[in-house]
Design brief:
The structure is a homodimer. Chain A has 15 helices and 16 strands. Helix content of chain A is 37%, strand content 20%. Chain A is α/β, with parallel strands linked by helices. The first copy, chain A, is globular. In chain A, the strands form three sheets. In chain A, strands 1, 2, 3, 4, 5, 14, 15 and 16 form an eight-stranded mixed beta sheet that branches. Chain A has a four-stranded parallel beta sheet with strand order 6-7-8-9. In chain A, helix 2 runs parallel beside helix 3 and helix 6 crosses helix 7. In chain A, helix 9 links the parallel strand 11 and strand 12. The first copy, chain A, has two domains: 116 residues, Roll (Urease, subunit C, domain 1); 310 residues, Alpha-Beta Barrel (TIM Barrel). Chains A and B meet through helix 2, helix 10, helix 12, helix 14 and helix 15 of A and helix 2, helix 10, helix 12, helix 14 and helix 15 of B.
Chain lengths: 464, 464
């Protein structure tokens, strides 16, 4: 079965835009990308639209969708603690509704591939329900000695095996995520590194995100160290950077995705490049939590023409962002880099679109399948209709995408050849997902939000 | 005639949010703001919405709407020159369509009041067509001696008198805008200061926007000085800051609105405070053009509790932004301040909503009429419906407005008691403006855009 999609602009990413282009889809894969030949009856003409690869959200936590807006105005570590407190009030049904609603937001915003870190495991089932491709990383925590490394590892192996079984036949891979240097102790990191190597599991780690983390690792000081002291958690500051510390634990390699990278140096860069690790850049989350702006020139190695940057763009969870809108994420990424570097050349529209598509696919190790419109790749696509007011006129589709588009301008999302979101199906959001009934999910989300409101504002002393 | 608007949240700005609130409108003014009494037949219940004062866009150029996306990736002064080149291809009918389309974008995005700088004069007619309130500043240029100060002033007086006549019976005031220190010579600044004082005209000046401007004033160096030298323009660098320079020209006073303020110091602050001048903060434009981040703590004087900040939020023109979406402008303002200051307390949702409403009204000298929901003020309102995906759940309406809302979430805009935009009138944008036929405007905008495309990419050597 052949499907032909036509649009005023087709953006292959790996080549220049094609005016009045066509993408031919056969058996879930891209068969051709080309100027549209004369109309044939079975073509779907999207008209005034930009047809492009599905967006790759290289870092998110679909689980936390219900916490959107619940954790405002807290310094980084106080925010982490509020989030942890918030998690205790939710049950598995709440988590599933929260993650599924988040997956719906992703697909409605043109995202076809995710790198998701999940504690509850709900994100896997949410991603399956929406047909998403990507990597689902099972999170692991364990900074104190309340559970042995063996106990944690035994539980983790069981979870991963069940997840791999559940993901059979999908375009989802299961990975593991040692959460961060301040939530995973050295012995656990090393056990996880061994497990990942042996079972060929991709890794994802929050790294070099905040000054609080940096103070803890460099000097054993700051708000995280104070919490450790209060809770009697043994901590010997390694006195090195996060990247050097993670390398010493054996968790840096070509299948490792590092997230954030705000506090990194040239020396760190040499290390992660040698190990072949990739990055997810989360500009809105970093800014909103007061962590700063990641040095993208360092992460993406833009000064070195031999680089093939494995840097993707991530929304992070909506508990910090507060939306999963990769168009706005691209826009803010450019604005932050240009503002901080005081240089209009710091980041261009084309570069950030590549990061949000092919860069993310590379970071997740999926660029043979996703991230560009090329024959043989999976048919993961989205079509963006320039806004009737904010998207007029169009001089350059890249400018329109980065500087004007909103997630709500997406008119069509296709994953693996299957239409998963279609704005032309109806004006109500519930009518637009061919395979999903959003109503019961929304109802359960409201139940979960009420539980959070009842506990609000949580047990969160503000410590900066 | 009485109109009652009800909504799940009413945000008066000058007081805490009211759950299930009501705003009573009588004869174009606000008669009451209160918890909703039991339903009465003539009330319009907006349901799941946030009803708030209309947004105040303290700085824009409606004229330049057609240039959205036409001038990308140029350093500040190269961008200015490309914009000037672009202007030469447009005729009055193009300008009117461009400005009117921009005014429609404003009103559809909840903006009811503007501070607009216009060269062509079209913005005044656009603002009248959409019913906008605010200040329309006629721009003045004249850095070289090709026209005498007398000739410029005679022409300006004629324009201002015609504009005042055209604005009779509207909520629009006419002002004048000496464009910037690098486009207006000292003798012209002084003549404009005299005229403004005598005729009681508010002033608006682009000030302290770029390093190029700073280099020109401090040292007679940089790209602007080089252009002056090429064109034989006499320039004696005053060797002082922009603020000190403008003060020496006599243009700082309580009716002066300064725009940008990226390159300012504590000493500058003492000066503009003594003169009583106000600011428009344009964070997205400043970032995108590589100018940097304005020190909002300095502009708004947040360290001084006796301050009543006269700082508004501005989109600047869509030739640099590229949208007029004050919700996103609020969001990016917070993200930039938090990122640069590495402090989550740098700017909160409540503070930025106040800046985008009451702060802007104060900056434009209109706070007796606009900027908050208070009995006696003009009924300038907007209602925002939290997004069906991105706006769920709502824990705090301020968080929802700043961190999730988009201009396209606006469901209703009322100006002076008149409904000027109503999303419930239809799904097509053309059906939503009760007093405006958008179709011929859009058609003319397309004509104007074709003229720009034909000249693209203009005569713009890239000089940083």
């Amino acid at each position: 079965m052949t499907l032909r999609l036509r649009a005023q602009w087709v953006l292959p990413i790996t080549g220049p835009p094609i005016g009045n282009g066509e993408v031919v889809v056969e058996a879930g894969r891209i068969a051709a990308v080309r100027p549209a030949p004369p109309a044939v009856p079975d073509a779907r003409d999207l008209g005034n639209a930009i047809l492009m690869p599905g967006l790759v959200n290289a870092h998110t936590h679909l689980d936390y969708t219900v916490m959107r807006g619940a954790l405002e105005d807290r310094p980084f570590f106080a925010w982490v603690r509020a989030l942890v407190a918030c998690k205790t009030v939710l049950d598995p049904e709440d988590w599933l509704a929260s993650a599924t609603f988040g997956a719906a937001e992703a697909v409605a915003g043109g995202i076809t591939t995710v790198g998701d870190c999940t504690d509850s495991g709900a994100a896997l089932h949410a991603a399956i329900a929406l047909g998403l491709s990507g990597v689902i990383y099972q999170e692991v925590f364990g900074i104190d000695e309340s559970r042995t490394v063996d106990a944690i590892m035994t539980e983790l192996r069981g979870k991963v095996e069940r997840m791999q079984s559940d993901a059979t036949g999908t375009a989802l891979t299961i990975g593991i995520s040692p959460h961060a240097p301040y939530t995973v102790r050295p012995a656990l990191f090393r056990a996880l590194a061994d497990y990942a190597r042996g079972a060929q599991l991709p890794l994802c780690i929050h790294a070099a995100e905040s000054r609080a983390e940096q103070e803890l690792l460099q000097a054993g000081a700051g708000p995280i160290a104070r919490m450790f002291a209060r809770r009697g958690i043994a901590w010997q500051a390694p006195g090195v950077s996060t990247i050097a510390y993670l390398d010493a634990q054996g968790v840096l390699g070509p299948h490792t995705l590092l997230v954030h990278g705000v506090q990194v140096t040239e020396a760190d860069r040499a290390l992660w490049r040698e190990r072949g690790a990739a990055w997810a850049h989360c500009p809105k989350s970093n800014a909103k939590l007061g962590n700063g702006v990641a040095p993208l020139t360092l992460l993406a190695g833009r000064d070195d023409p031999t680089d093939c940057p494995r840097v993707g763009l991530g929304s992070d969870s909506v508990a910090s962002n507060n939306t999963m809108d990769l168009f706005e994420e691209m826009r803010v990424a450019v604005l932050l880099q240009r503002a901080v570097q005081q240089d209009v050349g710091a980041l261009t529209a084309r570069e950030i679109v590549e990061m949000a598509t092919l860069g993310g696919a590379r970071a997740l190790g999926m660029d043979a399948q996703a991230g560009s419109l090329e024959p043989g790749k999976r048919a993961d696509l989205c079509a963006v209709c320039p806004g009737a007011l904010h998207g007029v006129p169009v001089y350059d589709p890249y400018s329109t995408l980065v500087y004007t588009a909103r997630a709500s301008d997406v008119m069509l999302t296709m994953i693996g050849g299957e239409i998963r979101y279609d704005a032309t199906r109806g004006n109500r959001i519930e009518d637009r997902f061919p395979h999903l009934d959003l109503r019961p999910i929304r109802r359960r989300l409201d139940v979960a939000a009420r539980k959070i409101r009842a506990r609000y504002p949580f047990d969160t002393e503000v410590t900066s």
